[in-house]
Structures are given as C-alpha cells and as structure tokens.
Design goal:
heterodimer; A: 112 residues; mainly beta; six-stranded mixed sheet; five-stranded antiparallel sheet; 11 strands; B: 114 residues; seven-stranded mixed sheet; four-stranded antiparallel sheet
C-alpha cells in the first residue's frame, strides 16, 4: 500500500527552468512533510520540510506548496541548475510516529 | 563529525553466502534505522532501534534478515543465506530523540548477490 504517491517518476528540465514534483497522501494523521534530495552514491538528505499549518514554505530556490484540503503537496525548484540533478523524495510523517513514509522518488535531470 | 559511516560501500557475493553490513551512527544519536532501496519498491524501512533496543522490525522481509545493535556506536544487518533478490542499496540512518528529529543517512552499501 503506497501511502504517499509521487509523480513524475522522472523529469528533465532545461537550465533556468522550473522543476515541479507532486505528491499526494491519504492519511489525514500526517502532519509533517519533508522533502529529501539524493545524489548518486549518497544517502538521502533533508532538503526542506513543511507542516500543514502553512500553505507555502520557501528556502532559496526551493519552495514547498501545500494543499491540505486536496491532501497534496509539491516541490518547486526555481531557476533549476545542473547541480540540482538528483533524485527527490517526498515523505510524510504522523505526529505519533517516528518514521516517515517515503514516496517512490523522482529522478530530476537539469540540462545545461 | 564524520556522519553516519557504513561499510562496506560495495559488496558482491554469491547466492547462499552470509552477508554482514555495518553501521556507525553519529555520536550522540540514540535512534538508528536500516533502510533498503530498490527501483521496484523505493525506500523501505527494515528495522528501527532506540537506545540500542529494536523497536520496530516489521519491515524485515524474512527470517534470513537479522539486525543487532550491541552498543550505541555500532549496528549490523546480516543476511543469511543471501539471495539475488536481496540485491539493493542498504542505508543506515541515525537521529536524536527517538526518531522525532530528522534522520541523517549514511552513504549506503550496494549489495549485489549473484
């Protein structure tokens, strides 16, 4: 059972473009939504996270948009750079849990 | 701090052999996680330790898998006997405060069972 559905599976963007990755969830107990970035040969690393009391969080070129009623959240990468090429995972965690549920990942390639 | 350290980085073994993966968590972290990553299933949590005690091993696929944490600075994940379908990247991660803070991942062990 996939509790967090992530799309697209892969994404190719030109340098300077906007990369958008979407996630949807069903469990209304989720109250923390982190995004992880994974470079080849490395483990996932926390990139940015949001709680459902806000609709948007921005850190530099990375923005999370959150739609609680639709149970969807997305990652926007503005002015995408070749160095952003990586696999991105969305995740969700319930307040009573200690383990995030991960999406399947999106492989992003930014062409120079 | 050097972060979470895993060894070996790569392991190639024959089917039926025993495989042991090792992890040194970040000093001071009291929670440790083992994950498996495959193309088919993504990131799967195998087992979670808190203060060296296994708390949730429901993700361990079968009895061929076992994990131990004899002290706060060392954990092992053992597969015996190994099978080709065990081929994956295995990650160890550690965190503070029982997992309620973010986990830091190691670089992973790429296991290939032939």
């Amino acid at each position: 059972q996939q509790q967090v559905k992530q799309s697209p599976q892969s994404l190719i963007v030109q340098k300077g473009g906007i990369s958008i990755i979407n996630c949807a969830y069903e469990n209304t107990a989720f109250d923390y939504f982190p995004w992880y970035q994974q470079f080849p040969g490395k483990g996932p690393a926390l990139l940015i996270a949001i709680r459902p009391d806000v609709s948007e969080k921005k850190e530099g070129r990375f923005t999370i948009s959150f739609n609680k009623s639709a149970k969807q959240f997305s990652l926007h990468i503005m002015d995408s750079q070749p160095g952003d090429s990586a696999t991105y995972f969305c995740a969700a965690r319930a307040g009573g849990s200690y383990i995030p549920t991960f999406g399947r990942g999106t492989s992003l390639i930014v062409h120079p | 701090d050097a972060g979470v350290i895993q060894s070996p980085r790569h392991e190639v073994t024959e089917m039926g052999q025993e495989v042991t993966l090792r992890c040194k968590p970040i000093s001071g972290h009291n929670s440790l996680f083992w994950y498996r990553q495959t193309m088919m299933r993504g990131l799967e949590l195998l087992i979670y330790f808190n203060n060296n005690v296994p708390i949730d091993d429901s993700g361990m696929p079968e009895d061929r898998f076992s994990a131990k944490m004899p002290n706060a600075s060392f954990s092992t994940l053992k597969i015996q006997p190994s099978e080709p379908r065990d081929s994956a990247v295995y990650f160890c991660a550690s965190s503070l405060q029982g997992g309620r803070t973010e986990a830091f991942f190691g670089q992973g062990t790429r296991l290939t069972v032939v």
